[in-house]
Amino acid sequence: MRGISCGQLRGLMIAAAMAVSSLAQEQPALENVPPVGENRPDEPIRGEFSLDAAVRFLDGAALNWQKERKCFACHTDYAFLFSRPLVSPTTPVHGTIRSKLEHLAEHPRDVKYRVTEAVMVASVLAQNDALTTGKLHPTTRKALDRMWSMQREDGGFDWMKYSQPPSEVDDHYGVTMAAIGVGVAPDGYAETQAAKAGLDKIRKYFKNNPPAKVHHRAMMLLASLDVSGIMTETDRQQLVQELFTLQKRDGGWALATLGNWERSDGKLQDRESSDGYGTGFAVYVLRRAGVPTDDRRIQRGIGWLKSHQRLSGRWFTRSLWKDQKHYLTHAGTAYAILALAICGETTNDDKD
User: pTM for the complete prediction?
Assistant: First the structure.
């Protein structure tokens, strides 16, 4: 079973984009974007799947985050830039968010989480380049080179740890994001002297710090498809089987089962209910690992996604941190779109 490389993924993206109709509604802009509303567990389910509704939510969430917060977050704008191109990158909204990230790369901030920001900026720009132009933007190259200057000798990065799973809890997430970005960076960036030295340190980090959580091992799998020496094919297939054992009876996955994260509000994690992030992420990783779309288990995952979209277009995911904003819903929607796109399910038959 052969995995799907980033180059092959871009080919799938182009084919999918050709099959997708233009959004019926006018594209929102930063100055007039309507609010997307709260991420609520009790929001009604849609009667039928709508790609238009999903994309409108993704666009609206990204624009609102920039309008209100004027920053980038793993669960919202970063996730937008590595998922939105799989529908279509040639939109004003994508151009707006991409230009904001380029500005951040050219004008890095001296904040306490500057290392985290440097890694995410570089990785996401590289992923976005790979999915759009297929060329390494000069700003992306500059951001990648800057990222290496912040790498520790053990291969890690001093990561933001705000007890907010899965992205802000440990150094492992940052190391994997760096590997994913460098691995897919166009124009042979991974073969540059700086990248080779940095990737050698990353391999050492993974060897000395093997991840215990399924989520982080799944991210390592994604990195290993474009960077050698991170995970063997045997390891990948063991992870594939582990992911399938966590699939729920309804066909979905629960993000809380992909790690043993503790909540800050003292409540129990919901390990029983399938959600958007868990299902979208699992299906996407499994497809990238080479599991065919017609596999019965993948079809069940697709079925869950298409039958559990909320009225607003989003896929709800409960926060693993505390019951408040549930911003993981934004990332869950991004991964749902990634999963549906890689399974060839992003054709627009709805009239929403």
Answer: 0.94
